[in-house]
Amino acid sequence: MNHLRDIPSVDALLQHPRADDLQKRFGRSLLLSGVRSVLEDTRIQLVQSPDKVSLDVEFLLEQVETVLVRWVAPSLVPVINATGVILHTNLGRAPLSPQAIRAINETASGYCTLEYDLTRGGRGSRSVHAEMLLQRLTGAEAALVVNNNAAAVLLVLTALARRRGVLISRTQLVEIGGGFRVPEVMAQSGAKLIEVGTTNRVRLEDYEDALHSHPVSLVLRAHHSNFRIIGFTTEPSLKELVELAHRHNLPLMDDLGSGALLDTARFGLAHEPMVQESLAAGADVVCFSGDKLLGGPQAGIILGRKEWLARIKKHPLARAVRPDKLTLAALSATLIHYLKGEAEQTIPVWRMIAQTPECLRERALAWQTALGSGEVLASLSTVGGGSLPEETLPTYVLALTVQKPNAFLAALRKCTPPVIARIEEERVMLDPRTVLPEQDSLLLHHLSNLLQNQKRKEATS
Ligand SMILES: *Cc1c(COP(=O)(O)O)cnc(C)c1O
User: Fold this and answer.
1) Ligand 1 site, CB within 6 A
2) Which of these, 163, 152, 142, 145, lies nearest to 218 by C-alpha position?
3) Which atom of ligand 1 lies nearest, measured to the CA of 385?
4) How much of the chain, in percent, has pLDDT values that exceed 70?
5) DSSP string, 302-340
6) Model's pTM, two decimal places?
7) Are 142 and 309 in contact (CB under 8 A)?
8) By CB atoms within 10 Å of each CB, which of 100, 188, 295, 350 scores lowest?
9) What's the pLDDT tens digit per position in 307-318?
10) What is the pLDDT of residue 455?
11) Of all protein residues, whose CA lies closest to atom 5 belonging to ligand 1?
12) Nearest Cα to 95, choosing from 428, 351, 388, 381?
């Protein structure tokens, strides 16, 4: 029977030859923490069941190794997205183009002109990089990039409407997901929410009435995001809202959410409001995400009239939500794809949207052939990311019939890289639309292993 006093000392473990190797791999300090943690666990186990605990130094060091490997394993790892949801918020939304990835690499590995003007040989501004591209691309007078669109909305409202009224339709008081609720962001900014109309209907006269009875500093239109109102509904057009705001000398802000630069209707989807349209309708400030339909890095993009952007840029909060050099590098590379007219071919999000059902069917059939298993079925992919609610893209999936679909999904998540798939009608569905072509062989490798394990289990049971 073991006693607490029999537990080896920290030094006994550290002096064992095996500890040298662990120290080389993990460093002295982490090794020490690992040893202490394992000895502490051993102490607890010993008190609970003195006979079942091994106090062998080699055995304990093996446990230390297991602990250390776990401690240094990153939790943010790449996965294979076989869900068919293109802008999967939980899986990091938009994958970047090779050019954007190269730009990140080059910028990250050394110094760069983040805030340096090469012509003058002195201090420059980090905001010029994406701003010039955005101006050229959209014709906007001015632009500002921040960390994400939630920060963009917060910043604009704080800079332009703090302690003053903001008009917004009740149809647009939505929660976007992940706790982003328009009324709450507005409260954070210090702006006073003035609700107009009803949940399903709002008319221009409702806005007029509100303008006459409240002090207002801004009119906000927010995209409904992942929510759609159908049936008995009315909302004034953006153009009408712009005219109304300008009649009262107020700016109109349009939170587009996704902010498409290409027309989604060209791909058989509903038409997602576009950045260019919003600016053409006269919106004074337009904001949208960098990692939704733009297909770039996480960012919030604010475009619009110079006078308003100048006030936004000057606000102290702008400094707190400014983007880093890696974001600016990737965003610039992404915007250049649009400028060159090659976005559809080079930006992964658009490539995925543009894939034809025939191509997808061929890929699913190739998977089926390689695995000698499953069935190729017509199914539906979605865009996700709060854009185009209920809109789907026809696809073909590989459907695997397995004994325990949930256990199979769990086993897929344990692979390296983990594979994320979905279950429909008791079958495991894998959608090629969101699987990057270079991931095909790894995916098939994992699937074939798991299917073989399954066969083996069936044979023995
Ligand atoms: C997604 C979304 C946001 C938040 O954008 P993030 O880039 O995720 O911060 C804000 N407004 C609308 C309408 C959205 O769809």
Assistant:
1) 148-150, 153, 176, 180, 222-223, 225, 255, 257, 289, 300, 386
2) 163
3) 1
4) 98
5) EEE-HHHHHHHHHSHHHHHT---HHHHHHHHHHHHHHHT
6) 0.92
7) yes
8) 188
9) 999 999 999 999
10) 86
11) 149
12) 351
